[in-house]
Amino acid sequence: QVQLQESGPGLVKPSQTLSLTCTVSGGSITTNYYSWTWIRQPPGKGLEWIGNMNNRGSTIYSPSLRSRTSISRDTSKNQFTLQLSSVTPEDTGVYYCARDRVDWGQGTQVTVSS
Question: Which residue has the higher pLDDT, 41 or 101?
Fold first, then answer.
């Protein structure tokens, strides 16, 4: 059974870059057909898709976040990483990584504040 775990700083200052890592166990991020996703939930709002990476490492991003988003991976560690630049308080929320939006990590709270 695949398991995903988000990690990263819980507090980021405005204008800095948010960096989160998703560590995957029980399955390889290079396995065919699976898509690896970052999703967030701002306080009091619904889920917001950030972007995907497929098993070959190709990425696609939300149009509203594309200019600030980068998803990369380290296949030797079976991890994929989210970087979101120039953050503002509106980027505060719980950030999740997921496989095919079926298997999810527990989520990690990120607060953008000075």
Answer: 41
